[in-house]
Amino acid sequence: xxxxxxxxxxxxxxxxxxxxxxxxxxxxxxxxxxxxxxxxxxxxxxxxxxxxxxxxxxxxxxxxxxxxxxxxxxxxxxxxxxxxxxxxxxxxxxxxxxxxxxxxxxxxxxxxxxxxxxxxxxxxxxxxxxxxxxxxxxxxxxxxxxxxxxxxxxxxxxxxxxxxxxxxxxxxxxxxxxxxxxxxxxxxxxxxxxxxxxxxxxxxxxxxxxxxxxxxxxxxxxxxxxxxxxxxxxxxxxxxxxxxxxxxxxxxxxxxxxxxxxxxxxxxxxxxxxxxxxxxxxxxxxxxxxxxxxxxxxxxxxxxxxxxxxxxxxxxxxxxxxxxxxxxxxxxxxxxxxxxxxxxxxxxxxxxxxxxxxxxxxxxxxxxxxxxxxxxxxxxxxxxxxxxxxxxxxxxxxxxxxxxxxxxxxxxxxx
Length: 415
Description:
The protein is mostly beta strands and about 425 residues long. It has 2 domains: about 5-270, Oxidoreductase, molybdopterin-binding domain (Sulfite Oxidase, Chain A, domain 2); about 285-410, Immunoglobulin-like, CATH 2.60.40. It is about 10% helix and about 30% strand. It contains 6 helices and 26 strands. The chain has a 5-stranded mixed β-sheet with strand order 7-6-15-10-11. A hairpin with a 2-residue loop joins strand 12 and strand 13 (about 190). The longest helix has 7 residues, at about 140-145. The model has no long low-confidence stretch (mean pLDDT about 95).
């Protein structure tokens, strides 16, 4: 399908999304500017962060189709030029069941700005995370309709790459795809906005946002992930990007499969050395008081925040008001809106005069705790150890809690 860029008469990104901090106008990349705008169970479409690899294309839902290729209907054709049936947007909406899932989506580069020395890429701070309700067709319904292989991998390809550029695509294990992945055409009950993948995107619940391919135009079923020269133009964002890379000049080895999509387990194991970013890591964020706030001694202050852990449940959140010297459990509020949605937390604190560093750390149901800080560059550290997150050249996956704390000044009464 031919692609055109969004018309020039569209408003600038900072005018279209006034509550976002724009990191680049083309392609469109912007994070939530204020943590206070995240302090809710859901994030409005206009406040949800935007991450694009290429400029947003101009799309026509009436003409858009999604093709299915590879191991479907008994076919053994699995190369990049494989052909197959197509499904239009009306068919997706009317001929298949619809499912809604609440998902806390986080860019795997969120927190990159806190790496020292600097990591490559857009310098996301803490605002590349948002929660929304995504509605669409469960991918398993299409796979069943077209008799896809029961095992293997599904490579999902986006339609945003300009001619001559690498296709943005991600390969997902069939088990995950059949379990809960959705071809979403609505966001918070409205048609997908252009910058979020209109007319259809993949939604991979619990996993980093790089896996939720926008502008989906092809699902390719195969025994393994694409690798090698045959798939040139399709492997960049699966085999080279969105993997842990270190300051040793070595490129990640292209693999046709991984034993587990659990990012934490990959990082903890000897292989693969360059972990793929799939499932999210436990993380928390203080939303109030704001960093740099001035408070009054002896006046109660509400401390609020959010915690999430991908496919795992948030089991515990602790708070420190003295820079990590002491910790106390903090109350989790109402249940999450779903398995993949963040939890809110709150407590009251009556501070004494002085300078205070507020920190939060989350623990998931598997007992995984946020590390304190980002490590110094060390190619030998490929996982979370010694309470540090591994420095990596592209700043992926940072869930260290110290950079996400807030510093406040408490003044004496009448100061």
